[in-house]
Fold:
Amino acid sequence: MASLGIIVSSTRPNRIGEHVARWVGEHADGWDIDLIDLRTVALPHFDELAPPKSGAERTTDHARAWAERIGALDAAIIVTPQYNGSYPGSLKNAVDYLYAEWENLPTILVGYGWGEAADVLELLGRLMARFGTDVVSEIGLGLGQDLSPAGELDVRPEVELALVEALGTLREHADARIGATVA
Structure:
């Protein structure tokens, strides 16, 4: 079964990302899901001796473990809040620890916040493009429209349909990537 990582990027104590990740996971049938909580991954600020793009061997246990975890995925969904118009520092740090692992990885970006998280989705999409990530879709959940500040979800049907369609596209891209690896 293809592996799907659902990354909860907020580490705040009062976050609602877990609720959004659970909603995403409920729609992801037929995947072996790895729920990746950056709060428990707890990567320190980048502390490797060489930049990941260099391809140099990683020197810390946490960097090796993080690279293995993301490298083992066939696809990913990044769930992120929009904090002050951007993504949390924990997500930027986690992304920056890797390079090759993000390249061509089929990925959906799911943002939540005011204005349907449009600002964070734009910025995160641009960031992931630098890594050559295969971003197949961006889904924005609006506070007051799809979820409450406490994390209660009442997602609009058109947003739910967009997620289902995006998951279908994600599966196609993951299957093609798996097929290319096997061939």
Notes: Residues 157-182 form the longest helix (26 residues). The chain has one domain: 3-182. Residues 95 and 102 are 8 Å apart (CA to CA).
